[in-house]
Amino acid sequence: MRDVSRTLPEEILITGGSIYDPATGKSRKSDIGVKQGVLVAPDAVQTDSATSIDATGCIITHGLIDIHVHFREPGREDKENLQTGARAALAGGFTRVCMMPNTNPPIDSPEVVRSLLEKGADLPVQINVIGAITREQKGVELAELLEMYAAGVVAFSDDGMPVENGQVLRNALLYARDLGIPIINHAEDTHLRADGVVNQGALSTRLGLPGNPVEAEASMIHRDLLLAGETDARLHVPHVSTALAVELIRKFKGQGVRVTAEATPHHLGLTEDTLTGFNTNAKVAPPLRAEKDRQAIVAALVDGTIDCIATDHAPHTVDEKEHDMINAPFGMIGLDSAVGMAFTVLRQAGLAVEQIIDLFTSGPAAVMGMELTPIEEGAPVELVIINPDENWTYGPEDIYSRSRNTPMLGMNFTGRVSAAITSKGWFCRS
Ligand SMILES: [Zn+2]
């Protein structure tokens, strides 16, 4: 793969850009230096020997945080592993990710958590681990929540599978409340969803495919919100896809329930119409919905009902995705197109560049209780450089994941990552 270097140059000088620090909400026009992985004043680096990055027209900001990725390790490293996942993340501007536990075996014990954190420790992207809510993600018995918390998990989720049993979810919420971390429940009533592979409506009828109704998502979110309110625990709702769910989250948030939510770039930018050509790369769970749902997601990001953007990066092999719509697995990759899609759609919706950056930095950090790295001299470098006005077409050469399952190839975006830099490695496009 081109342009991805694991070794950080001794000295870097970034010139011509403006710095936006999401931790303070302040912007300033300034050059900035990096020396041995630490931010320094621009005159503290040797101008002639330093690697220079021209950031004219760009915004220099905190590295992006993706709290929902599937890196497939352990078990399906042929789709993605920690290293290839981290490479795709960095190329997409992300310096921290949170891995979902639906691996094989699932991440449901402190041993697996520790081994993944150890493996990820030297990667250029900070790897965080989310532990399973239930043993083997079967939804029946709680997993070793306290032990996994002690091993370092940042949240609990059975993502990919909902916790259908309300009593089990309620008990998990009580544990998570005492530990101070969120429960993330993949919200789809599997009985209502049945075999649905696309959004239920006119399109599913026309294509002759089983539909997944909006109520499958909304009814489970409604139950989860009631339980979060009753237990005073923190609930995080992943990949919100329907106007109905947005309404519920807005209502309960307004009542003081401790709920946060995320939207994916695909749900904010694409609709079910992407599936008219039976493109299995557009088959995701929850499914791409109707235009009115997409608009509700965008409005919820604009008014703060939805707190952050998360990719739900879900790599699958070409072989698997070559099955028909019924049998192909759910999921698309998303790390390397996230900035392009989100900046394009959300700027059109009226958000400022800084507000979009918040949805990728301070928003997700708050959900996971993470501290942002300050953008000031003496702090370790954790930066992304984004050109918000660059027009580009997303092509196969932009994919850094081990998998290629995305329906976005060929799309035109405005807003692109130029570089991402951490103290353990960097990505630079030019
Ligand atoms: Zn999910």
Structure at a glance:
The protein is of the alpha/beta class and 430 residues long. The chain contains 14 helices and 21 strands.
3D architecture notes:
The chain has 430 residues and is an alpha/beta fold. It folds into two domains: 4-59 and 376-402 and 416-428, Urease, subunit C, domain 1 (Roll), CATH 2.30.40.10; 62-368, TIM Barrel (Alpha-Beta Barrel), CATH 3.20.20.140. The chain has 14 helices and 21 strands. It has helices at 82-91, 110-120, 145-151, 166-179, 190-193, 202-207, 214-231, 243-254, 265-269, 291-303, 318-321, 338-348, 353-360, 362-368; strands at residues 4-5, 11-15, 18-21, 26-29, 32-35, 38-40, 51-54, 59-62, 64-69, 94-99, 126-131, 155-157, 183-184, 198-199, 211-212, 235-237, 259-263, 308-309, 382-393, 412-422, 425-428. Strands 9-10-11-12-13-16-17-18 form an eight-stranded parallel sheet, with helices on both faces. The structure holds zinc ion (ZN). The site of zinc ion (ZN) has 5 residues, from loops.
